[in-house]
């Protein structure tokens, strides 16, 4: 409502303008107040806890200083991740030896003491440890079992493989629960009896990862009723010629270290993706064909990490009628000019092949001298 100079209006018209102007100012003021309003605090606690669970644990803990209401909310988040040395593979051996476990371990104990959630979606820990940490690992496992954890990732880094955590020593005093769906073990001493214990007690277990660990006895990943869909046993050290026996009807993907006569795979009708890490100099294409013969007709994707590629690629490569993608990674670092000469034999054995990738990559060493690290 705009009036020109010299115009006259009645009292009623002035009153109407005053009401309109004040109503407009009131709306602007309300909009400013709403813009500065703490909308997050208006959410119910359950919703805030979901938001906090998406933050790194440290940042989630910092929110306790915001107000009295927020002081305990982080204690109910369903995801606990203590990943203090996630990038340790880029560190030198001397740097790792200089690391001390005391502070991170104290933080883990402090958080677990304060945590109040009745259940855990995920528990992840990646810490540097020494030979005295075994007792704490048992304590932590008791905690996660009491919270019915669904995803468990354990990575205990140490400068000396002899100091590795012994999984079985902790499982003697506690048992995994039926709610576990994903288990990842890295830099741990693990035996066949440990894995059997998980398979028996965890009927929902669909993913099992064992990496850069010491396998102390035969591993039998077998069972007609196993829910397991993904199995990864990678870059491990096998003691006393340990055998890996796999028989899982629901398995769709497997990534394993292949050793002559030490890997037995059967009853895997749904296996469509497979990765093999083959290091032995005496390992031949005929031995490879024998190891994979029971599932070659199912495979859609095959990935080979080869230290001696000429031993595997070439005449005699197993027939894979449904293979669509092949990836070969040569880790020998030799870069020989005739590297691709065996390729026609491989392609001929896979008539439905849609993509074939041959990579030459120099082998990378891990921070411990016993294993290699795949890219």
Which stretches are poorly predicted, pLDDT < 50 over at least 5 residues?
1-6, 86-101, 365-375
Structural class: alpha/beta
Number of strands: 20
Q: Taking all residues together, what is the mean pLDDT?
A: 80
**N- to C-terminal distance:** 71 Å
**Lateral arrangement of strands in the main beta sheet:** 1-2-3-5-7-10-13-15-16-17-18
Percent strand equals: 15-25%
Global outline:
elongated
Main sheet overview: 11 strands, parallel
Q: How much helix is in the residues?
A: 25-40%
What is the chains' assembly state? single chain
Please tell me how large the radius of gyration is.
Answer: 30 Å
Number of helices: 11
Verbal overview:
This protein has 375 residues and is α/β, with parallel strands linked by helices. 28% of the residues lie in helices and 23% in strands. The chain is built from eleven helices and 20 strands. The protein has helices at residues 11-35, 45-53, 57-62, 93-98, 102-114, 134-146, 167-171, 192-201, 285-292, 309-312, 343-348; strands at residues 79-83, 122-128, 151-157, 165-166, 182-186, 188-190, 207-211, 214-215, 219-222, 230-234, 237-238, 244-247, 253-258, 263-265, 273-278, 301-306, 325-330, 355-360, 364-365, 372-373. It has an eleven-stranded parallel sheet, covered by helices on one side. It has a four-stranded parallel sheet with strand order 4-6-8-11. The termini are far apart.
């Amino acid at each position: 409502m705009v009036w020109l100079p010299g115009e006259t209006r009645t009292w009623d018209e002035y009153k109407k303008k005053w009401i309109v102007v004040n109503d407009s100012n009131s709306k602007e003021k309300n909009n400013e107040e709403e813009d500065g309003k703490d909308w997050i605090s208006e959410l119910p606690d359950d919703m805030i806890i979901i938001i906090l669970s998406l933050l790194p644990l440290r940042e989630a803990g910092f929110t306790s200083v915001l107000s009295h209401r927020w002081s305990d909310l982080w204690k109910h988040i369903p995801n606990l991740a203590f990943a203090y040395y996630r990038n340790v593979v880029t560190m030198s051996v001397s740097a790792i030896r200089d690391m001390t476990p005391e502070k991170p371990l104290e933080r883990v104990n402090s958080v677990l003491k304060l945590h109040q959630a009745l259940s855990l979606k995920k528990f992840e820990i990646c810490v540097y440890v020494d030979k005295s940490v075994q007792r704490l690992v048992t304590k932590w496992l008791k905690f996660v079992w009491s919270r019915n954890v669904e995803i468990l990732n354990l990575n205990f880094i140490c400068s000396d493989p002899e100091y590795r955590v012994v999984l079985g020593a902790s499982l003697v005093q506690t048992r995994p629960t039926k709610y576990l769906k994903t288990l990842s073990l890295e830099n741990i001493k693990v035996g066949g009896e440990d894995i059997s214990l998980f398979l028996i007690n965890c009927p929902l277990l669909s993913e099992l990862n064992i990496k850069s660990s010491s396998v102390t006895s035969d591993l039998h990943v077998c069972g007609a009723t196993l829910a397991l869909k993904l199995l990864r046993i990678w870059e491990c050290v096998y003691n006393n010629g340990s055998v890996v026996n796999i028989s899982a009807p629901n398995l769709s993907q497997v990534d394993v270290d292949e050793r002559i006569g030490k890997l037995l795979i059967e009853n895997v009708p749904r296996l469509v993706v497979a990765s093999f890490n083959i290091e032995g100099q005496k390992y031949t294409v005929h031995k490879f064909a024998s190891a994979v013969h029971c599932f070659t007709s199912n495979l859609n994707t095959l990935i080979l990490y080869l230290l001696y590629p000429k031993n595997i690629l070439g005449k005699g490569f197993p027939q894979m009628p449904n293979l669509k993608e092949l990836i070969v990674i040569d880790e020998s670092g030799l870069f020989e000019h005739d590297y691709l000469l065996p390729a026609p034999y491989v392609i001929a054995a896979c008539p439905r092949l849609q993509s074939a990738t041959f990579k030459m990559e120099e082998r990378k060493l891990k921070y411990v001298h016993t294993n290699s690290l795949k890219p």
